[in-house]
């Protein structure tokens, strides 16, 4: 199910005044919980040890997400990290040494990106420095008479971004006219889907949104009812995933790609 469809269904069941950004944050919470406790996906990075004997990690990889460390052709599970302390005691000898870190990969927050300004354009590119878009994003583009007016995207062209450069984005087709200092509004199309995309488990998102709305409206009986439904669906999905999983105590699989 598309995330926006889940939000629309929740809004139809319980009209409310809460913003799209708030509801997208609630959906992010559900996605993160599913990836932490039901469908775990892993990734791997190569990094180094600094002069203090500390493993250098990007800011978005926290200690609680780390699953394994691979160092000197040996795998250290998280419960065995304490055995690394003697190994890393002589930090001067290890400075700059490379190792791999396997970590739980959580879904990225859903991005509701909408920008406006004056841009130089070609038929298949828009000059934007440090564009807040990623490759693969679908965007809509509409012309403005004035940057302060509301943007109407109802009939605006759309295109996929195939490359993001420092000073421009490249589109997959000729979507706009070449122009200098064109006044444009550009938004990312929110086409994200639920992490579990099959019924009835995708309904977890709807129940969670309804629970959050009820909570902030001080409707605690409604909150408890929707959280009961959410927890029931979550537990059922968890049981089914374990039942259908081929994992045993002797067969171990990890799905991660080498970066």
Which secondary structure elements does this structure contain, and how are they paired or packed?
Elements: H1 3-13, H2 20-37, E1 42-48, E2 66-71, E3 74-77, H3 84-87, H4 91-94, E4 98-104, E5 114-122, E6 125-126, E7 138-143, E8 158-164, E9 169-171, E10 179-188, H5 203-216, H6 220-244
Helix pairs in contact: 1-5, 2-5, 5-6
Detailed description of the structure:
Helix content is 29%, strand content 24%. With 259 residues, the protein is α+β, with helices and mostly antiparallel strands. It has helices at residues 3-13, 20-37, 84-87, 91-94, 203-216, 220-244, and strands at 42-48, 66-71, 74-77, 98-104, 114-122, 125-126, 138-143, 158-164, 169-171, 179-188. It folds into 3 domains: 1-39 and 193-241, no CATH class; 42-104, no CATH class; 113-189, Elongation Factor Tu (Ef-tu), domain 3. The chain contains 6 helices and 10 strands. Helix 1 packs across helix 5, helix 2 crosses helix 5 and helix 5 (203-216) runs antiparallel to helix 6. Strand 8 (158-164) and strand 9 (169-171) form a beta hairpin. The strands form 2 sheets. The chain has a 6-stranded antiparallel barrel with strand order 5-6-9-8-7-10. It has a 4-stranded antiparallel β-sheet with strand order 1-4-2-3, with no helix packed on it.
């Amino acid at each position: 199910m598309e995330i926006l469809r889940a939000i629309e269904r929740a809004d139809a069941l319980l009209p409310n005044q809460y913003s799209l950004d708030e509801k997208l944050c609630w959906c992010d919470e559900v996605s993160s919980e599913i990836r932490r406790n039901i469908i775990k996906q892993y990734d791997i990075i190569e990094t180094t040890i600094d002069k203090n004997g500390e493993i250098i990690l990007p800011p978005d990889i926290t200690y609680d997400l780390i699953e394994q460390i691979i160092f000197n052709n040996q795998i250290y599970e998280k419960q065995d990290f304490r055995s690394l302390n003697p190994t890393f005691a002589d930090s001067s000898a290890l400075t700059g040494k490379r190792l791999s870190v396997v970590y739980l990969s959580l879904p990225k927050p859903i991005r509701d990106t909408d920008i406006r300004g004056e841009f130089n354009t070609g038929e298949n590119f828009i000059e934007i420095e440090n564009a807040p878009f990623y490759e693969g994003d679908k965007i809509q583009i509409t012309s403005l008479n004035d940057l302060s007016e509301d943007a109407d995207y109802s009939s605006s062209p759309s295109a996929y971004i195939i490359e993001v450069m420092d000073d421009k984005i490249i589109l997959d087709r000729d979507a706009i006219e070449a122009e200098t200092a064109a006044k444009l509004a550009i938004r990312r199309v929110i086409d994200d889907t639920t992490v579990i995309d099959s019924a009835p488990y995708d309904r977890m998102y709807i129940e969670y949104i309804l629970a959050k709305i009820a909570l902030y409206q001080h409707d605690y009986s409604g909150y408890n009812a929707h959280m009961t439904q959410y927890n029931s669906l979550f537990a059922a999905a968890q049981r089914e995933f374990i039942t259908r999983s081929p994992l045993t105590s002797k067969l171990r699989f990890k799905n991660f790609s080498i970066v």
